[in-house]
């Protein structure tokens, strides 16, 4: 089968052919985060703020892999995540984005059915598990919390100066398969809201094949602002078939028996 993607021929509705879990899994991601009514997110007063330790990255690769653009620091990076719903310390692996071809679509998670124009995923893996010692092993481990992904919605507004080094680089990785070594340092901490207190959290999966059900998801309530020009820069990135990547987001999956917790009322 042609490698997976987001077109009619190889998009989310076809992924079950290579990844049966797409249709049989009971903890698939993304989901629609419902805030009122029966199956709504339940406030949990025990949920603490998320703690990130992100020293500025000094060495990283920025890659267009045909289905997203990904920022991956060298293995030696010391960035870590803890707190929130987590009991262990997680190591930063990479961040990437999902976006649409207009401002009314693009995010993977939704809030009461509302999509944002894009979503940023900060991917981490449990560095204290005795069962694995790399991201790749973590994905294949069947451990329900092998990974922790922080999701941030992007909305259109003022230009985001902290993300400018990334959005300015998009034209350099226009072609699928192309990558550049990131010039200079990148301060990811500056991209995030100061307080990481208000979030939804639930057990889910990767939103792309292999769709492994190994992710503790933490999706923040407060969107990050980017300018229209910055959004347009994502929409000019090619998918390797001579077309821009426009809509690399998976539709929401059934919640099944899962509950979503909210760290805020
Ligand atoms: O659901 B996500 O889009 O957000 C969180 C997240 C993390 C990782 C991916 N996929 C990756 S890294 N696949 C390549 C790979 C897959 C399996 C082993 C190694 C390498 C997708 C997502
Ligand atoms: Zn993602």
Characterise the protein shown here.
The protein has 4 helices and 15 strands. It has 265 residues and is mostly beta strands. Strand 6 and strand 7 (90-99) form a beta hairpin. The protein is globular and about 45 Å long. The ligand O[B-]1(O)OCc2ccc(NC(=S)NCc3ccccc3)cc21 binds at residues 121, 123, 136, 139, 149, 206-208, 210. Its cofactor is Zn(2+). Its EC number is 4.2.1.1. It holds the Pfam family Carb_anhydrase.
For the biggest sheet, the summary is: 13 strands, mixed
Strand tally is: 15
> How many helical stretches?
4
Task: Note the gap between the termini.
Answer: 46 Å
Q: What small molecules does this complex bind?
A: the ligand O[B-]1(O)OCc2ccc(NC(=S)NCc3ccccc3)cc21, zinc ion
Helicity, as a percent range: under 10%
List the uncertain runs: none
Q: What characteristic shape results from the CA principal axes?
A: globular
Q: Any idea what the radius of gyration is?
A: 17 Å
Series of secondary-structure elements, N-terminal to C-terminal: HEEEEEEEEEHEHEEEEHE
- What structural category do the secondary elements indicate? mainly beta
β-sheet strand percentage: 25-35%
Chain-averaged pLDDT: 96
Enzyme class: lyase
InterPro entries: CA_dom (IPR001148), CA_dom_sf (IPR036398), Carbonic_anhydrase_a-class (IPR023561), Carbonic_anhydrase_a-class_CS (IPR018338)
Pfam families: Carb_anhydrase
Function: Reversible hydration of carbon dioxide.
Entry keywords:
265 residues, 13-stranded mixed β-sheet, two-stranded parallel ribbon, binds the ligand O[B-]1(O)OCc2ccc(NC(=S)NCc3ccccc3)cc21, mainly beta, 4 helices, binds zinc ion
